[in-house]
Amino acid sequence: MIKNKSAILEALKNASVNEALAVAFLEKQRWAGQPACVRCGSVAVYAMTGRDGHRNKDYRWRCRDCKGVFTVRTGTVFEETRLPLRVWVYAIWKACSSKKGISALQLSREMEITHKSALFILRRIRHGLGEIDPPKLMGTVEADEVYIGGKPRYNSHRKGWADKVPVAGLVQRGGDVRFRMLERVTADQLGKFIAENADLSCRLITDELAAYKQVGKAFICGHETVTHTEREYVRPGTDVHSNTVEGVFSLIRRGVMGTFHSVSKKHLPNYLNEFQFRWNTRKMNDGQRVSAAIKKIDGKRLEYRESVENPPYLVKIMEKAKQLEADFLGGCLDGTFQ
Question: What is the pTM of this model?
Answer without folding.
Answer: 0.83
